[in-house]
Amino acid sequence: MALVSLQDVSLGFGGALLLEKVNLEIETGERVCLVGRNGAGKSTLMKLFAGEMQPDSGRVLCSRSLRVARLSQEVPGSLEGTVYDVVVGGLGTLLQLLARYHALSLQVSEKADEAALEALAEVEKEIEIAGAWQVQQRVDLVMTQLKLDSEQPFSTLSGGLKRRVLLARALVTEPHLLLLDEPTNHLDIEAIIWLEEFFLNSSLTLLFVTHDRELLKKLATRIVDLDGGQATSWPGDYGNYLRRKEEMLNAETVQNKRFDQKLAREEEWIRKGIKARRTRNEGRVRDLLKMRDQRRQRREKVGQVRMEISKAGLSGKLVAVCNETSFAYNKKPVIDKLNTTILKGDKVGIIGPNGSGKTTLLKLLLGDLKPTEGTVRLGSNLEALYFDQQREQLDENRTVFENLGDGNDTIEINGRQRHLIGYLKDFLFTPDRAHSPVRILSGGERNRLLLARLFARPANILVLDEPTNDLDIETLELLEELLADYQGTLLLVSHDREFINNVVTSTLVFSEGGIVQEYAGGYDDWLTQRPDADTLVPLESKSRSQGGKKEKLRSTKPRKLTFKERAELKALPATMELLEKEQKQLYDDMADPVFYQGDGSVVAEAKNRLLEIDCALKDLYARWEELEMIQEEEG
Questions:
Q1: Distance between CA atoms of residues 330 and 135, nearest Å
Q2: In the predicted model, what is the mean pLDDT of residues 506-532?
Q3: Would you say the CATH fold of 563-634 matches that of 318-546?
Q4: CATH number for the domain running over 563-634
Q5: Which CATH number is correct for 318-546, 3.40.50.720, 3.80.10.10, 3.40.50.300, 2.40.30.10?
Q6: Positive or negative CA dihedral for 106, 107, 108, 112?
Q7: pTM of the model
Q8: CA–CA separation, 327 vs 417, rounded Å?
Q9: Which one of 29, 79, 187, 494 counts the least CB within 10 Å of its CB?
Q10: What's the DSSP call for residue 303?
Q11: Rounded to the nearest 5°, which phi and psi values hold at 530?
Q12: Torsion angle of alpha carbons 577, 582, 588, 590, nearest 10°?
């Protein structure tokens, strides 16, 4: 029997229905991932399951005792008290007992008077009778793993930390159905990996939305695709979903094409029939009217985001050189003796726990901060654009149009003038949405707007600080392609492991004590290259369990390709392909008997050219293998 089900559920907010006669069931023990474009209705569907919203039509069926917890993208403004108060706030009848126990424990630790000790002993008995000790242990475990300070006032936390507290609140309730809307936003890699293991080892039933493809691949037992108001279920893993979805879309495209061709023939027939005959085949006319209605009801697919980065003048070959660079806050080391060189065209990922100093490192590399020790030497003609994870560059009270245009109706992209409305359509903003204030936008829409704003400005250095939060997977993959082809320099802070793997060419990894080590390749490459866990533990610090002992990193870096060699390696396949095409054409020409009936010098030139190409290809293949071998040793 299904844990909860939707039966012919429809819901809309004006215009086309967001959900149209949706049927969906969630079985006990499933881990269902809900995918779809931003604005497709994923969060709305979750609110229906949580009972926070009622459908316009249809039914939501569940048992009366069903316990549902939901982690939303928005932080409620009504939550008060300490972090501990908020985390245990969803525990119902156990809340008062645990709150009293927590308060008395603090009181005893500060002043162990007899009255407090007696009160604490009494509460402990009540907790034991209620069987609440396991709940307290779960609270402690979750708060420890998510690195939450129980006594910190909730109101003083950043938006990211507040979401982590709400995640802890959802986890400790042990609901029958847990609804997670982008649970990895603002979590570092350590917390994301812990979250994966927690869910894999639990029996919780999950319905979740995520842009983190690694999390999706590891957790999901079924994919539900929300598109055009319809929810389509795809059993199996994410890879199976991608294959079968592509097959379905191809078949749908062929079917729609045939339908449109038939409709065009019928429209032509009826126009001719009016002129040629007084009476027509009424059955055929009725069929045509039905076809017209079918065509009107067909929902066209939402277009793809089209991104283009405005190019600035070329920077110098050198972007930044760190020589024994250190930075400390109040004598506490954040970065300790970093040595690295960043060249034009490098794509550098920065990995580390929240609060480790990643943003500080970005500011040092851009010259916005001065090191407390050592030097940072910057290159020439550097024009940087900064993607701020807090969206501080957007004016909440101005419209999308105004935030982008700053009073202008047009914008120049790589020498071409474009109207703002047309440019915003490339980032999936309709004209109506373009004139909406930023404060009503979803997280994904805000991200797309900030990307549109940044990419319109000339730059040869892109600095992206957590750009993937709230983006749907399709937009995320398009951003990856854009960055992979970007000719400038990229500095990327991200906790999205697959995004790092697909974009960067090297990584700077933070570990205990402000030590930053450089590795070739992305996240997976770092995993294979890093020293053993006792010498480098950037994600789960072992130094605390070793009495605070900190060991020096040992370098395992092989020789790296130079900038010139990287460019050479990138250009080699195209060069070889051109020569091979010329070689094939010459062979085709010489296979024709007519070729030898012409000028003898032409035949001789063709033979000589074939020898030259053969020698050149051998040299190029040898050089390609040499550079590939160095690159493989790097990774």
A1: 39
A2: 85
A3: no
A4: 1.10.287.380
A5: 3.40.50.300
A6: positive
A7: 0.64
A8: 44
A9: 29
A10: P
A11: -65, 150
A12: -140
- The whole-angstrom separation of Cα 93 and Cα 609 is 87
Instruction: Name the residue ranges covered by the structural domains of the chain.
Output: 80-158, 241-297, 318-546, 563-634
Q: Which amino acid is at 91?
A: L
pLDDT band of 482, cuts 50, 70, 90: confident
Long-range contacts of 572-578 (CB under 8 A, 24+ apart): 572/620, 572/623, 572/624, 572/627, 573/624, 575/620, 576/617, 576/620, 576/621, 576/624
The token pair at 175 is 């609901």
Strands 318-329 and 230-235: unpaired
d(CA 75, CA 403): 24
Q: Which residue from 139, 150, 148, 161 is spatially nearest to 84, judged by alpha carbons? A: 150
Tens digits of per-residue pLDDT, 52-78?
A: 889 999 999 987 778 888 887 777 777
Contact criterion met (CB below 8 Å) for 162 and 75: yes
Average pLDDT over residues 427-456: 81
Query: Does the pLDDT of residue 612 top 70, yes or no?
Result: yes
Tell me: the pLDDT tens digits for 311-342? 655 667 888 999 999 999 888 889 999 999 99
Give the separation between CA 143 and CA 194, rounded to whole angstroms: 12
Residue 251 pLDDT exceeds 80: no
Residue 536 confidence (pLDDT):
38
With H, G, I as helix, E, B as strand and everything else as coil, classify residue 181.
strand
